[in-house]
Write a structure and sequence with these properties.
Length: 186
Amino acid sequence: MSSDRSLVQIAFYAALIAALGLVPKIELGLAGGIPITAQSLGVMLAGMMLGPVRGGLAVALLLFLVALGLPFLAGGRGGIGMFYGPTAGYLAGYFVGAIVVGAIMQAMRNVNVVVAACVAGVVGGIVVVHALGVPVLAYKAGLTLEKAVMVGSLPFIPGDLIKVVLAAIVVRTVARGLPSAIATRS
């Protein structure tokens, strides 16, 4: 694949994740102010479609732009302070999660694309993101780890599972119509 095409794909998925930040966030009023957003769907799709390296780079590009102050996180949030607050671990989880999603999709390239996408989405897009997000939330919000799981993870799992299913449907649709667009399957 040409480096120009790779750069365009990385920029496209960074823009997609930013655009999903325009979907209104849902505030649950829980510790740390962690909102329900659509952006983790974009993180999952970046890994599923681009693979671990380019998917991770797409998220890294988005996070770099957020650090520069661009309001690309849900609710128009941005700035370096986002990386020091209670949600900082979830942002790190986005980066690592996209890499894990892409690696699982590649490892499962010979498995049905829907099954592979669901496994990759659950492991990378949910488990990894929450595994990095919850401890930082606990520390920053002064919560026990158990309490952080109760307020910073469990309420989000149903919505995250819906995002996994949506991502799997998108990947399956692309696999049927333009299979060469899924770098993790070639």
